[in-house]
Structures are given as C-alpha cells and as structure tokens.
Write a structure and sequence with these properties.
Length: 190
C-alpha cells in the first residue's frame, strides 16, 4: 500500500515538475481534476482496510491531495508565499500521518511519538518561514531575515525541548531530574 502511494506521489510530483512555467487556466483545471480523481482513488483503496490502518491510509490519501493541490496552486500562481504553503502543507500532512501512526502506541510511548511528530512539523514550518523570507529577501530586508531565523530557531528549540522532556517522563526521582536538567541545558531553556 505504501509503495503504491509513494509511486502515486512520485507520478504527481513528476507531472508538476515537468512544467517549470506557470500553468494556463485550462491546464490548471485539468490538473486539479486529476488531483481530485487521484484522491478519490486513494481513498477508495482504504475501504478494504480496518481500524487504525484505515485511518492511516485515509490520512495519507488526504495529505497527498492537499500537497498536490498546494503544488498545483504554486504552479498556477508562482510566488514565495505559495512555496511556503507547499512546505507547510507537507509538514501538516506528515504530522497528520505520524499522529495516526502514534495511535497504535500507548502510554508514554504514544506521548513521545506525538511530541516528536509536533517537533518535526514545527521544524519544517520554521524552515519554510525562513525559506520564504530568503526568497523575498533583498538588502533592505536583512533585518527581517535575521528575525525570521531567530524566531524559527526559537520555535524549533522549544518543540525539541518539549519532546526531550516527554522522554524524561519514563524516569523517576534523580534520573528524571537529571534528564530534565540535561534537556534544559541542551536546548537553552531556563
């Protein structure tokens, strides 16, 4: 199943990669219809599954649709904002899939899995923000770039710190205190 979804993703990506220039309105409509048809086909493949496997499959299908639509929009109206939207959409889709996969776990392992997924999403979104500012940057926007990098690093650090603290919850007493202190030091938290 994952192989088929990966092949489908690759096919959609290749279809979009072939057109470096902006799409015409007609091409956009045709590609949009294709994305919707691919989503319906992917969603139909999930019908034979049950329980969490079905939820994961549906999250993967929905994520692929959202990413394909964001890529299509970026081709139709190229801009740094649309490029950022693609990255954000990919981050959200990966998070939704990871969160569904975490449902197979229980207790602290599930909590750690969710925190790791959130940290990955936060990191990806922060990188997308920096990339957008980079694309828009010129000599007058150097201050904005530094601020965007600082904000992105702070967001990443906080998310990674929360994930590290969650890992400490499996410990008790002095070991837990040491783990939490190590996390504070590693991520520069007070």
């Amino acid at each position: 199943m994952k192989t088929k979804l990966a092949i489908l993703t690759l096919a959609v990506s290749c279809a979009f990669a072939g057109n470096a220039m902006a799409l015409t309105k007609e091409e956009y409509k045709v590609q949009k219809d294709r994305v919707e048809a691919d989503y319906k086909a992917g969603k139909d493949k999930c019908l034979s599954l049950s329980a969490n496997a079905k939820d994961i499959c549906q999250a993967e299908a929905k994520g692929m649709e959202k990413v394909a639509k964001a890529e299509l929009e970026a081709q139709y109206k190229p801009s740094p904002s649309h490029d950022k939207k693609i990255r954000d959409t990919k981050a959200n889709a990966a998070y939704d899939i990871a969160k569904e996969k975490c449902d197979d776990l229980a207790g602290n392992a599930k909590d750690v899995c969710v925190k790791d997924a959130k940290a990955a999403r936060t990191t990806a979104k922060a990188d997308a923000k920096v990339s957008k500012v980079n694309a828009e940057a010129n000599k007058d926007k150097a201050d904005n770039m530094a601020t965007a990098r600082k904000d992105a690093n702070a967001d990443k650090n906080e998310a990674l710190y929360k994930a590290a603290r969650e890992r400490c919850d499996t410990m008790a007493g002095a070991a837990k205190d040491g783990c939490q202190n190590d996390a504070k030091v590693k991520f520069g938290m007070k």
